[in-house]
Amino acid sequence: MRIAAVLADRCQNRKCNHECERFCPLNRTGVECVTFGEKGKPVISETLCQGCGICVNKCQFDAIKIIGLADELQGEMIHRYGENAFRLYRLPVPKKGIVTGILGPNGIGKTTAIRMLSGTEIPNLGNYENPPSKEEVLKHFAGTELHDFLENVYAGNVKTAIKPQYVDKLPLAVKGVVRDLLSKVQERMTMEEAAKLFDLEDVLDRELSKLSGGELQRLAMAATVMKEADVYFFDEPTSYLDIHQRVRMARIIKQLSVDKQVMVIEHDLAILDFLADNVSVVYGSEGAFGVFTLARQVRTAINVYLDGYLPEENIRFRERPIEFEASPPRGDWQTADLISFSNLHKDFGEFQLDITGGSVKIGESVGIVGPNATGKTTFVKILAGAIESDSGELDNQVKVSYKPQYITGDYEGTVRDLLFGKYYDTVSSGFFNGEVIEPLGIKYLFDKEVSTLSGGELQRVAITMCLAAEADIYLFDEPSAYLDSNQRMNAAKTIRRMMEKTGRSGMIVDHDIYFLDMVSDSMMVFGGEPGSHGIGDGPFDMREGMNRFLGAVDITFRRDADTHRPRINKPESRLDREQKSKGEYYYSRGGSQQRDHVDRYVNCIPGGIQVPRMHHERHIKRLAVLVHEAVEGPMGSGFLPGLHLDGRRHPTADDHEIDLLELLRIPVLEFGEEKPVP
């Protein structure tokens, strides 16, 4: 099955020579495969199209997509917005007693699916010219789980509550103070109970327009959870929240799912892993199509998403897997100091900030973590020169480029006008185009009006503008907000790569652990009393910084055995207690988790490894990998001595030694269920 999509927001039909129409082979033979409709946009006949791709390559605005899909999706279309427009395949179904997560990039139908499931929008099943009625939709899904769910929704037997994605738009929709909004939705709990649960007691009489992003997020969550409903939909419930608040929101949602149906869209993979029971991975192409896969166990779903390959459908939706390192970066940064500060103090009356002192080195990327309202943004503004400290020393004789926390689209003109008008030489260079414009997908936004950009698009433009400025140090305040998981990884790699290649330094304030893990060389930790007194320490190396930060919020992370991604441990679990006793909250020291696993199966002896006979031949390679990681850390080049079975030395592949690089090319077998001989 072949589909053709024309992205109307990219198509600039008045600025081109209609190459898609002129160069189409069928058009040149007299067959009208590509025509121009009443709105001046190209219309491509999917029936006639041969999939040659000439129109795709000739379009200078990348506005055309010709995509081949599996024939099995033919009868599974849920919604289509028009000819050559976005189409959605399949829908997830919320289930009582579990949290169903949705994981996928922006622009492929996740929010559309929530509107369908909540009854706000009726699926047209691909018939956009003559949409079916509710009865026809139910007949189409007869005999399926989705039929029973939608039948209750359409009959009014199911009440839904939705937490919107963009909480910063809340003050535009609702006027007044926090108390006024919460008093209207006192159904499941009283306003006082909700204020205590969501930590809103201090802002009940504050205007919505004066709330921070984190306070707006907690307010939106409170207003949603207070409603009496059967099905709850949460669209990105953790934006602007710190890690402690994110875990708290996750626990509230999990508690809600005990007797309710709950569905969550979330891009913070660590929180989604902790929060959800089952996850539906969504793949597709932005603006063209989106396909929901069957829900699977959360660990498997996230690993599949990171790997970018769906084995049961034989679909690869990412060119290369996203990988994580099990060990922290080197802590000994061998460059000169770029900026140093000591004993900084700022008194705002109700809030005081103290920074003990530290320095940022040339080429270093420093992650800044800590609870909300402890002065992280204030510290960044002091470094940027936007705020002056009352006392202390600051060697700020450097140029600073600053990306603020809250971004607005108050600019009349296109993204191209904005970027080229301010930073023409930088943005037009091949280096910047390859390192920033392409990875962040900015070229697709060039002809969009800045005022019409979504939150994620604005964020990417703001990151680009910050990196385009000529500066010595780049300050990013929550650059991952509103970005999907793919975009967060790309943004982290882009920032890190630019710092390394240009010899500049960066400071990144964020709450996404995955993002900070990928972007940071060192870490600065903030604490104190939120809202009254903030204290900043560091920068520290990544291990010490993570241990200090996570120790303060009492959370430990383990590493996934397959992907090495961080996963939050359950409170008071065996791993949680073990890691706290060792003081290792995030990184394993020298592969300590692997070491514990190996010790149960093998005994290291001089000159080799003794393996119990029941685990011999088929486990030798796996054991060698585990032992190397236990002793040396993550996998790399090197050799191990020969292996011993029951005390007798046996030759290995090359008679005496195992080349670990060769082992990496051999499928690794897992251990059996048998217990080893003591």
How would you describe this protein?
This protein is α/β, with parallel strands linked by helices. It has five domains: 2-68, Alpha-Beta Plaits, CATH 3.30.70.20; 88-316, P-loop containing nucleotide triphosphate hydrolases (Rossmann fold, 3-Layer(aba) Sandwich), CATH 3.40.50; 338-541, P-loop containing nucleotide triphosphate hydrolases (Rossmann fold, 3-Layer(aba) Sandwich), CATH 3.40.50; 557-587, no CATH class; 593-663, no CATH class. The protein is 32% helix and 21% strand. β25 (557-559) and β26 form a beta hairpin. α11 packs parallel to α12 (269-275). Residues 590-621 and 627-678 have low confidence and may be disordered.
Please name the CATH architecture of the largest domain: 3-Layer(aba) Sandwich
Low-confidence stretches: 590-621, 627-678
Whole-number total of structural domains: 5
Between the first and last Cα atoms, what is the distance in angstroms? 58 Å
How would a crystallographer describe the biggest sheet?
9 strands, mixed
Number of helices: 24
Reading off the top of the CATH hierarchy, the class of the largest domain is best stated as Alpha Beta
Percent in helix: 25-40%
Quote the average pLDDT.
83
As a percent range, the share of strand residues is 15-25%
Under CATH, the homologous superfamily of the largest domain reads P-loop containing nucleotide triphosphate hydrolases
**Count of beta strands:** 32
